[in-house]
Write a structure and sequence with these properties.
17% strand; alpha/beta; 13 strands; Rossmann fold; eight-stranded mixed β-sheet; binds S-adenosylmethionine
Amino acid sequence: MAAAENHAGPESPVSEVESEPPYIHVLSAFLAMEPPDYVISLARECIGDSITGSVQRVFWENCVKAAANGNTSYAKKFLKKLISEIELENGEVLDELYEEYALYMSSSKDDETAKESIRVCKVVSFLFPEGLYEHPSCPRSRKLVIPLKCSLNMLEGDTGCSVWPSSLFLSEFVLSFPDFFAGKTCFEVGSGVGLVGICLAHVKASKVILTDGDLLTLTNMKLNLEVNHLNYDDDLAQQSGKAQSTVKCVHLPWETASDAELQEYNPDIILGADVIYDPSCLPHLVRVLATLLQKRPSHSAERDNSPEKCSENEYANAAGEQEHAPVAYIASVIRNADTFNVFLKLLDQTELSITDITEKLKPLEFLPYMRSYDRSSVQLFSISSR
Ligand SMILES: C[S@@+](CC[C@H](N)C(=O)[O-])C[C@H]1O[C@@H](n2cnc3c(N)ncnc32)[C@H](O)[C@@H]1O
């Protein structure tokens, strides 16, 4: 109670308290659809034990009203939990909260929405740690807020319509080391909702090519690029000479992607998050990686793509040209050791080397409010051609 008063007395305008870091965590957790009991416990932890009138108002102004545009099912669950906790502590519930909850109760709108579509809009807010080196490409940005249309059904769009933990980790990696990616051509396999691509565009990769083998996933990904005000182009052949369009969306099933098509993309960096899970797809995925990772002559002094092994990756040849060696960054939760071992074996047979860089290049923590995201479950690997 006292702590809450310290941050915002009953008369404090919401806009003032909103900018307080504890509220940022609470609001970010709500918008990311973290479990309601966790969001409320976070509020208690950050703001004070009691859910005072001013705290309720913050929830009302910033969360519940925003949820009215969609996510009604989550808002209803959240309100139910919030009201019952306030009542339990004999607090006074704001009229607006009661009224909104009564509206949800009297209408079956949220149930219909839930049946018709299990798509929701999750907002992933990357909160930049204090003192983070400011990259010239993203000056003064203290947070990056990315709304994402996604599905609560993990199997929709062949798993590509959900946000997986590895894409959160890979996004944190991109934001932690913007210099690795700025000015580079970046190509992602199995891009899903497009989160990593949006972060790559944010750090000013010169070209972002997002790919997926599932058409429903690709449609959802394009929607997310639109929602995040990024232009996309799905016809790579037409891009040369055209006004710059940063993000390409390409339907690219690993099984049918031709070597010639892959070579045309000519990426500096290849990325992938949570793509190592289906043993039957792995030979195709590894072939795609091997083709994209082929070393090739480079006439310009290209910048290193593998910062941890700079000198090893560029080789001067007899004509004074340099060999350009792309690198892949693959983030993965190893759920099945056998499947991962199949992947390692295939890499070895294809003359690709893999290094676990999880500790060496540990990303900063941008999602401290997200309890559902277990960072420690994700490993990050760099893969390059031998
Ligand atoms: C587990 S999801 C991960 C999605 C996203 N990278 C993330 O981490 O949130 C796997 C992704 O790989 C794509 N995928 C699976 N098999 C594929 C294949 N054979 N060819 C191309 N994409 C494939 C799926 O459509 C899906 O988007």
